Amino acid sequence: MTDSPSGAEIDVTPLHMRKALGRFASGVTIVTTAEFEDEAAVHGMTANAFTSVSLDPPLVLVSIANRAKMNERIKETGKYGVSILAGDQEPLSLHFAGAAHEPDLVRFVWRKEVPLLEGALVHLACTVVDSYPAGDHTLHIGRVEQLWYDNGHPLVFYTGSFRALELLGRDEHRGF
C-alpha cells in the first residue's frame, strides 16, 4: 500500500508529493479558454487543482503549471471556464490531458464568451481577478460571472485512477 514502512519518514520530493497528494480524492475538471467564440480557438486542459475560494464574492481558483500553454492563454484572455465532469466523461478527461485523441467527443456550450463542455455537471464562466506565482505553478483566481449545474454522478480521481463515488447513507443534499 505504501512505498515505505508504516510510520517511516519519507523525503519531501516532487514524486512523493504527487503520491501523497494523490490520496486526496478530487473531482475532475476541464479548464478552458478562448479569445473568440470559435471552437478552433479553444484551448483546454484537464485539471484537478481547483477549489472554491469565496462565496461572496463568488471566487474560484485554478492552479496551472507555469510551463503549460494554458497558463499563457489564461493570461492573454483574462478569463477561463471550469467544467466539472460527470462520471461518464472519463474519455474527455483523457482527451484534454493528452492521453487520448478523441476530438469527436468534444462539444462546447458558450457562456459569457467562455467555452464549457456539454454534459458536464457544472459550468463556471470566470473572469480573472488575480494571478499569483506559486513555485512551478500560477494560481489564477477567477470571479464566477455565470454558473450552471445539474444532478448526476461526478468523475472522481484518486491515486492516479478514475473512481466512482459511493454515497454513504441517504442520497440527499446536505450542507456543512
Topology of this protein?
Elements: H1 14-21, E1 26-27, E2 29-33, E3 43-47, E4 50-54, E5 59-65, H2 69-77, E6 79-84, H3 90-97, E7 108-111, E8 114-117, E9 122-134, E10 137-149, E11 156-158, E12 161-163
Antiparallel strand pairs: 1-11, 2-3, 2-6, 4-5, 5-10, 6-9, 7-8, 9-10, 11-12
Explain this structure.
The protein is mostly beta strands and 176 residues long. The chain has helices at residues 14-21, 69-77, 90-97; strands spanning 26-27, 29-33, 43-47, 50-54, 59-65, 79-84, 108-111, 114-117, 122-134, 137-149, 156-158, 161-163. The longest helix has 9 residues, at 69-77. It starts with 13 loop residues before the first helix and ends in a 13-residue tail after the last strand. The mean pLDDT is 88.
Rg over C-alpha atoms, rounded to the nearest angstrom: 17 Å
Portion in beta strands:
35-45%
Distance between the termini: 31 Å
Mean pLDDT level: 88
* Class by SSE composition: mainly beta
Number of helices: 3
- SSE pattern, N- to C-terminal: HEEEEEHEHEEEEEE
Tell me the total number of β-strands: 12
Shape: globular
Which runs of at least 5 residues are low in confidence (pLDDT < 50)? Answer: none
In spatial order, strands of the major sheet run: 3-2-6-9-10-5-4
Helix coverage percent? 10-25%
Main sheet record: 7 strands, antiparallel
